[in-house]
Design brief:
Layout: H1 2-14, E1 22-24, H2 28-34, E2 42-44, H3 58-80, E3 85-87, H4 93-102, E4 107-111, H5 118-123, E5 129-132, E6 145-147, H6 160-166, E7 175-179, H7 186-202, E8 204-208, H8 210-222, H9 226-229, E9 232-235, H10 242-248, E10 251-254, H11 258-267, E11 270-273, H12 282-291, E12 297-298, H13 306-315, H14 319-332, H15 337-350, H16 355-358
Parallel strand pairs: 1-2, 3-4, 4-5, 5-6, 7-8, 7-10, 8-9, 10-11, 11-12
């Protein structure tokens, strides 16, 4: 959702009068988030994410939903008559790009992981162009791909000193930001709670614990002394303040989704990445890409406990070491990814030469 919304904002910036529409699945979270975007009508297909495992009714229903979504998408595109289609991954892209191909509408698919997901690999065979976040991914989509980076929110308007003051962090303090991304956060939350006494000796900790993890985080805070409580701030989520938190932070502990990796690179942040060990192991490859270039520290999920977290955080309290990681991350950043994809889409829709084929970076 968020990369797609970032591209929508970039398209609107480029052409304010452009008509945009968002096509989503049946899950309510997507509709709730997109409904907050101005001038972006939401259209729903019956397909849903196929990530869930296990033997249940969805094992039978999901292929039926996917099949039913193809004629639904075909009819929708007939009504909307778009000049171009953009999809940011997932099984929703399959019926959408199939319908676009049948109607001769150019389509651009974005793959955010080093190792392509199954859905993107399937839909890319029908897509006009494929944008990728990492250069090694070009090999998976020969002749039609280019490196765009990951479309992310803009950090240009965030003032670091002001953001730090808003989180109660002084000039001589160091802020550790902890969050788990969209996947389960139990492993990270448990490690943070057990390591708090050691962490708070050297860090202020801003902990995005999620709604499920917030009660346990609050209980851990209550067990701290009054002076340590002032250095630990657990929140369920930050929503529109996440950009402030990233700019204010000195070190991040989190998962290694494509958006997380792109944002820490764009900001220039040192990080301890704990890749989510499931979902095709995509995050392990994302984290390794940064670590191999000196831009992050990687701790496997199974190895993260209080002792390991405290030890890594203590090591990275060294400003020079942390600055080296941050500089390497910044060198990998592509903060203009949303604009690059928007320019490609506008050229596709208008039948102009494609920027990716004239400005380098294409495969």
């Amino acid at each position: 959702m968020y990369p797609a919304l970032a591209v929508a904002r970039a398209l609107r910036d480029a052409q304010p009068a452009l008509e945009l529409a968002y096509v989503g699945g049946v899950r309510g979270l997507e509709r709730r988030i997109v409904s907050g975007a101005p001038d972006l009508p939401y259209h729903e297909l019956v397909v849903r994410s196929l990530r869930g495992g296990g033997m249940n009714a969805h094992l039978v229903l999901d292929p039926l939903r996917l099949a039913a979504s193809v004629p639904q998408a075909y009819a929708l595109l007939g009504r909307l008559q778009p000049r171009a289609i953009f999809t940011s991954g997932g099984y929703l892209g399959i019926p959408l790009v199939m319908a676009a191909r049948a109607r001769r509408i150019p389509s651009l698919v974005w793959e955010g992981n080093v190792v392509p997901g199954r859905a993107t690999a399937a839909v890319s065979r029908l897509a006009t162009r494929v944008a990728v976040s990492f250069e090694p991914t070009l090999a998976a989509f020969p002749d039609r791909s280019f490196v765009s980076g990951t479309p992310i929110r803009s950090f240009d308007a965030v003032d670091r000193p002001l953001a730090r003051r808003s989180f109660g962090v002084g000039d001589d303090d160091r802020l550790l930001l902890v969050f788990g991304g969209s996947q389960a956060v139990a492993r990270i939350t448990a490690a943070v709670e057990a390591a708090l006494p050691a962490l708070l000796e050297q860090w202020h900790v801003l902990h995005i614990a999620g709604e499920a993890g917030k009660p346990a985080a609050d209980a851990a805070r209550d067990r701290l002394s009054a002076d340590r409580q002032a250095r630990y701030r657990p929140v369920p989520f930050l929503s529109d303040r996440m950009a402030d938190a990233l700019v204010a932070a000195d070190l991040v502990v989190g998962r290694a989704g494509s958006s997380t990796c792109a944002e820490i690179a764009a900001v220039g942040l040192a990080s301890i990445l704990v890749p989510y060990p499931h979902a095709g192991d995509h995050q392990r490859a994302n984290a390794a890409f940064l670590a191999d270039r000196g831009a992050a520290v990687v701790v496997p999920d199974a190895e993260l406990d209080a002792a390991r977290l405290a030890a890594e955080a203590a090591r990275l309290r060294d400003d020079e070491l942390r600055s080296a990681l941050a500089a390497a991350a910044r060198a990998l950043g592509r903060p203009d990814a949303a604009r690059a994809i928007a320019e490609e889409l506008l050229a596709m829709g208008e039948g102009r030469p494609l920027p990716s084929q004239s400005g380098g970076g294409a495969s």
